[in-house]
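Example record used in the benchmark description.
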Amino acid sequence: MRIMGAEPRRTPERTRDTLERLRTERDVWVSTAHPEHGPHQVPLWFRWDGHAVWMCTGAASVTVRNVRAEPRVRLALPDTFDVVLLQGEAECFPEERVPSDAAEGFAGKFGWDPRAEEGDFVYVRVVPRTVRAWRGEPELRGRVVMRNGAWTVRPRPGGGEPQTAG
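Model output (structure tokens):
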């Protein structure tokens, strides 16, 4: 798809835009798979803590079952024009083991604290290993903005324009 008049963003701008979306978006599509039951995809609320994505879902959910059997996951922000895909390994934290800053941050963002609910919930943390970001065909080249867990440009503290890594 060619976007008329759109100039491809350079990597620092893509990284900055990606980090801003991770800070401000509410929903993420979570794709998991189970060796016997196959793929599963579901939208969940998420919080970005600057290093990892934190989500919360029912302890008996298909997502939790799949992550425990196969921790490799893919996350996608819900915009097919401004694509952000994250890949990493998920780790489950029962309510009693979740770090307090993660649980408090999640509750603060959504005004909902799963620890106060009836039923059992599990927090799922994904530290991305790869992040891809692009807007249409002009940005397919250079879409990898994180590789092997490291941003290809260093984000500036406070969210300013990222610097070239190295």
